[in-house]
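Page 47, continued from p. 46.
Same chain as before, 151 aa.
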Amino acid sequence: MSAVPAYSRTAERVPERYPARPRISVVPGGKTQVETLSPAIVTLAKAVAIVLVALAVVAFARIALTAAAVNVEVESKSYDSLIDTARSEGSSLEVAQSSLSNPSRIKAEATALGMSAPESSSKIIMPEDIVVTDGSGNISLSQSLAAAARS
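Result:
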């Protein structure tokens, strides 16, 4: 530990870091004459600025509309290609359906699978259904039971 105290009761003079600045005093005087632009020139400059801003807005609007038109045209071309693809697929499906539904082809395929036409055919006549529905189309149990009891 050193014997130097942390602080002292007497103020010590701190050396100045910056040199002393010269004193400035205000001298009263008259107002100096400043040249200004005429009000007509200022008004003309404002009008020119407004016209330039309006032209810039119109130019940006034109650019935006042109970009939108280009995007619509690109989408239109992609839709045209999708339509062409769908039409060609539709045509090929029509040809396939036509060949698959041809009766002579169906008969040939059935014969190849070992199928043949029936020797005779008959009809089965079913009695009338006893299930009854109500006005809203739901099955009515009570009415169905009554119909079953009548038959």
